C-alpha cells in the first residue's frame, strides 16, 4: 500500500518540476485581463503563465466505487467494491484562486463469516463506512499547476457483531471523528489542445482523531454458565494521517459539459478499528489506535462549468 501511494506521489511531483522560479516569483503581479466571457462563465486571464480560461463556477458529480482492504486484525473478512457518491462545487475568487467544497461517502462495506465451534453455530458480521467533507482554497500558478490548502472532516464508523444460534451476544461499535488540515496539488500531465486532458492530484494531512469504542455483551447463559449482560464506552484521542492520490481523464462534450473518469487511492493511518478492540481493552485497559485503512477504486461522473 505504501509503495502504491509513494508511486502516485512521485508521478505527481514529477509533473510539478517544470514550474520555473520566474513563475513562482511573479505571483499575482499580472492581473486578470478584460477579455469577454465565453458563454460558460470562463474568463481568460494572464495570471503568471496564462492560466487559460477558468470558469466562475465548476460543479462535479460522480458515482464513487471503492474497495476497502480487509480489517487489520480480522483478515478473514473481505470487503467488496461498494458504491457511493462524490460531489463538489468550486467558485473562482479573483485572479487564479478558487474556493472548493467536496463531499464523498460510502455506507455499505460489510461481510459475514459463519462457522461452528463444536456443535455450536457461530456467525460474525463486520461493517464499515466512510464520509469526508473538505473545504479548500486553490491557487493556480500556471495553466498546468494548481496547489491547494484546506480543512477536512472525516468520519469512519465500524461495527463488529458476533451471534450464537443467530442470537447476538457481542457487539463492538467504533467511531472515528477526524478533523485536520491538508495541503496538496494538481498537475495537468496531458493536454494537446483537444477535448481530452489528463490530470494527477495529491493531498496529505495530519488529523486530530477523537475516537470511541462501545462494547456490549448479552450472553443468555448456557448450562452452568450464568447470563452476562453489560455495555461500556471508552474514548480516546490521538493523531492520524490521511493521504490521497488520483489520476483523472476528462473529455469535453461542449464548452460547458465534460465527462470525467478517475482512479483514486486513499490511505488512513492511526484509526481505531472494530477488530481487536476487545483484546486491547482486556490486556491494556485502553483502545487500540494503531489501525489503518486503505481504499482504492474509481469515480465516473460529469463536470458542469458556468
Give an overview of the whole structure:
The protein has 306 residues and is mainly beta. The protein contains three helices and twelve strands, in the order H-H-E-E-E-E-E-E-E-E-E-E-E-H-E. The strands form two sheets. A ten-stranded antiparallel β-barrel has the order 3-4-5-6-7-8-9-10-11-12. The longest helix has 15 residues, at 2-16. The two termini are 38 Å apart.
- What is the β-strand count? 12
Task: Pick out the low-confidence regions.
Answer: 1-7, 9-35
Outline: elongated
| Overall helicity | under 10%
| SSE order | HHEEEEEEEEEEEHE
Spatial order of the strands forming the largest sheet = 3-4-5-6-7-8-9-10-11-12
Radius of gyration, in Å, reads 24 Å
Largest sheet: 10 strands, antiparallel, barrel
Overall mean pLDDT stands at 84
Give the N-terminus to C-terminus distance in angstroms. 38 Å
Structural class: mainly beta
If helices are DSSP runs of H or I spanning 4 or more residues, what is the number of helices?
3
Classify the beta-strand content into a percent band: over 45%
Write the layout of secondary structure elements.
Layout: H1 2-16, H2 21-26, E1 42-44, E2 53-55, E3 57-68, E4 81-92, E5 97-117, E6 120-140, E7 145-164, E8 167-191, E9 196-219, E10 228-252, E11 257-271, H3 277-284, E12 291-305
Antiparallel strand pairs: 1-2, 3-4, 3-12, 4-5, 5-6, 6-7, 7-8, 8-9, 9-10, 10-11, 11-12
List keywords for this structure.
306 residues, mainly beta, ten-stranded antiparallel barrel, two-stranded antiparallel sheet, 3 helices, 12 strands, 9% helix, elongated, disordered N terminus
Amino acid at each position: 500500500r505504501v509503495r502504491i501511494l509513494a508511486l502516485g506521489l512521485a508521478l505527481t511531483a514529477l509533473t510539478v518540476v517544470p514550474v520555473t522560479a520566474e513563475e513562482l516569483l511573479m505571483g499575482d503581479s499580472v492581473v486578470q485581463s478584460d477579455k469577454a466571457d465565453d458563454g460558460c462563465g470562463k474568463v481568460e486571464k494572464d495570471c503568471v503563465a496564462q492560466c487559460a480560461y477558468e470558469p466562475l463556477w465548476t460543479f462535479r458529480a460522480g458515482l464513487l466505487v471503492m474497495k476497502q482492504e480487509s480489517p487489520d486484525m480480522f483478515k478473514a473478512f473481505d470487503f467488496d467494491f461498494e458504491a457511493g457518491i462524490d460531489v463538489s462545487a468550486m467558485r473562482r475568487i479573483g485572479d487564479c484562486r478558487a474556493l472548493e467544497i467536496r463531499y464523498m461517502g460510502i455506507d455499505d462495506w460489510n461481510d459475514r463469516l459463519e462457522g461452528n465451534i463444536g456443535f455450536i453455530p457461530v456467525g460474525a458480521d463486520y461493517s464499515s463506512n466512510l464520509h469526508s467533507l473538505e473545504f479548500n482554497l486553490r491557487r493556480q500558478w500556471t495553466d498546468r499547476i494548481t496547489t491547494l490548502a484546506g480543512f477536512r472532516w472525516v468520519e469512519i464508523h465500524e461495527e463488529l457483531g458476533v451471534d450464537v444460534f443467530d442470537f447476538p451476544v457481542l457487539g463492538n461499535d467504533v467511531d472515528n471523528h477526524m478533523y485536520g488540515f491538508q495541503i496538496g496539488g494538481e498537475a495537468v500531465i496531458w493536454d494537446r489542445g483537444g477535448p481530452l486532458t489528463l490530470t494527477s492530484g495529491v493531498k496529505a494531512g495530519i488529523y486530530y482523531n477523537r475516537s470511541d469504542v462501545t462494547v456490549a455483551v448479552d450472553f443468555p447463559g448456557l448450562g452452568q454458565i450464568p447470563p452476562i449482560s453489560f455495555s461500556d464506552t471508552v474514548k480516546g484521542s490521538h493523531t492520524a494521517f490521511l493521504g490521497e492520490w488520483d489520476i483523472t481523464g476528462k473529455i469535453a462534450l461542449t464548452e460547458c459539459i465534460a465527462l470525467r473518469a478517475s482512479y483514486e487511492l486513499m490511505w488512513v493511518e492511526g484509526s481505531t478499528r472494530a477488530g481487536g478492540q476487545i483484546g486491547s481493552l482486556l490486556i491494556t485497559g485502553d483502545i487500540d489506535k494503531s489501525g489503518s485503512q486503505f481504499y482504492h477504486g474509481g469515480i465516473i461522473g460529469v463536470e458542469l462549468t458556468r
